Amino acid sequence: MMRELALALGISDYTTGAIAFVAVAAFIAGLARGFSGFGSALIFVPLASTMIAPSLVAPLLVVVDVVMSAGMIPNAARLADKREVLTMLTGTVVGLPLGTFVLVHASPVSIRWAVAVLVLAMLAVVMSGWRFQGKPRRPLTVAVGAMAGFFSGMSQTGGPPVVLYWLGGSGHHAHMRANLVFYFALSTLLSITAYLTVGMFTKAVFGLALLIGPVYGFGLYIGTRMFGLTDARVFRAVAYGLIAATGLFSLPLFDGILRP
Asked: Rounded to an integer, what distance in angstroms lies between the CA atom of residue 173 and that of residue 176?
């Protein structure tokens, strides 16, 4: 019966253990996002890529995350600085197809190395407390958008450049958060368009999404509830630890451990 279900979902190439591992990664990613507000892609992409192809992981995260974040968009669209968001998005339009091209044509091992290095580098910057302190300028905003678009196209890890750039501004926190949510919603639409163009939304992606989506959503719910009950600093520390661990253990060097 399990074999027939796997065939129907298009995921018969993957063992039950591999799918269970990806589900655990999705739960941890949702948990981290729930209590820290970030980190889902930084956790899920490197970990899931140790078991399934990166060309499946990126569109899988898009499918799962777009459903879970839909309820946040209307309020964000009302509060966001639309001119600033659209300026950022003009750079993303350029960078995202380039990242998608790399995802389609580069070797899976090369992509995994690139994602792991990016995860660890961005984690170091975030933990250092550094934020961009200058006044946002249109050319710089476009350049940051292009960088984020490239990383999003390659692995859906385009968030850190945008977060570091905008959170250092002098605007009200609620408006900065709205900018982020609105930008990511629009950039996700661009990702969907790019992935559709190159045929990345396969039967296997949707089959995995049916299994992984509820687990990710449950982690998101639990993480949100726990954040309200516990000191936020504790959970930021846990999130940093989780991201660091996944960045390290997702390196191809550890395939002998994760893929015995």
From this structure: 5
For residue 167 the two structure tokens come to 């959170």
The pLDDT score that the predictor gives to residue 229 is: 65
Going by pLDDT thresholds of 50, 70 and 90, the confidence category of residue 228 is low
Per the CB < 8 A criterion, the answer to whether 240 and 97 are in contact is no
How far apart (Å, rounded) are the C-alpha atoms in residues 260 and 246?
A: 18
Is the separation of the CB atoms in 247 and 125 below 8 Å? no
Largest CA distance in the chain: 60
Question: Which tens digit of pLDDT belongs to each residue from 17-74?
Answer: 889 999 999 998 888 777 766 677 878 888 898 899 888 998 999 999 888 777 778 8
H-only helix segments in the chain: 2-9, 16-36, 40-48, 54-68, 73-79, 82-105, 108-128, 138-155, 159-166, 173-197, 203-229, 232-249, 255-258
